[in-house]
Amino acid sequence: MTTATWYREFAEVEARGVSPAYERLAHAVARDDEIIARLDTLPERKRQPNLLFGAVRLLGGPVLDPRAFHRFVVANWAALAREMCARATQTNEAGRCAVLLPVLATLPQPLALLEVGASAGLNLYPDRYAYRYGEHVIGSGAPVLDCAATGVPLPATLPRVVWRAGLDLNPLDVTDPADLAWLDALIWPEHDHRRARLRAAAAVVAADPPLLRRGDLVDDLPALAAEAPADATLVVFHSAVLYLVPPARRVAFTEVVRALPGHWISVEGPEVLDFHVPEALPEPGGRLVVALDGKPVARAGAHGQAMTWLG
After folding, report:
1. Closest Cα to residue 29, out of 10, 16, 46, 55?
2. Is 197 in contact with 267 (CB distance < 8 Å)?
3. Could you tell me which CATH class the domain 94-309 is placed in?
4. To the nearest whole number, what is the mean pLDDT of the chain?
């Protein structure tokens, strides 16, 4: 896939109906030979739209006006390239806990959670957040995660989590202002509710930090999983992570995770794990597939905003 095609598909599939600003911007970049030429000097994994747009926002650049964006990128390319090569898209969307919760509730309690690609670990706290599935409310406090649920078997109580750990190539620390600024920069421009949710979830994590281990999802997963308490159900999970992993390593990861005790929950695009499921949700952002132990159970919005059970 060419870089221009990548940006065009991002506009048409991921941003459409979810972020008008990024839909417009990605289309503009796809037609911008000058910016595409600069992106093509970077390693392929560093050319992705969210990484470029996040780096521009981090450096205080404009993302609402494509012409101003072009001028900023061209004038500040050296600094942007440094940021993009040093960073990764580690969007830590606590809202995805709303699509994890119904699956976690079906598993034997208590739980030992291990997140692959954990970023700052915000998704390791599904037992600490509140949820609103229409009129069905679970938990209390902040943040409150809203999810439009269709046909979903909703739990009556929160899961019991006795151990939580994360594995990431570059773990982030919500108590570090620079790390929190990067997480903020990755949130799409119009999504003020997600920005507020990030701050509320970060406060929860900062009050009781999880075990975050720097490591590779294949090579280092078994050793971290072995640290989980034996009297809890191990749950290895990840959300919107494997698309960043080369296909051969995805295969290696699935072999490793299937060999572990406990359960595996994935929240990824259908093409990432070759899932064949019904069409996406009619509302925007319904591209992800929630699967338990490799079996699809639901479609979900990219930020946890909607979930449809597959029966």
Report:
1. 10
2. no
3. alpha beta
4. 94
Domain boundary assignment for the chain: 3-86, 94-309
Quickly tell me which residue has 């941003």 as its tokens: 15
Residue 271: how many CB atoms within 10 A of its CB? 10
pLDDT tens readout for residues 176-199: 999 999 999 999 999 999 999 999
Q: How does pLDDT run across 15-31, given as a tens digit for each residue? A: 998 899 999 999 999 99
213: which DSSP letter?
E
pLDDT reported for residue 284: 46
Q: With contact defined as beta carbons under 8 Å apart, do 210 and 166 qualify?
A: yes
In the chain, DSSP assigns E strands to 111-116, 130-133, 136-138, 144-146, 148-150, 161-168, 211-214, 233-239, 263-268, 288-292, 295-300, 306-309
Rounded CA-CA distance 119/129 in Å is 18
Q: What is the pTM of this model?
A: 0.89
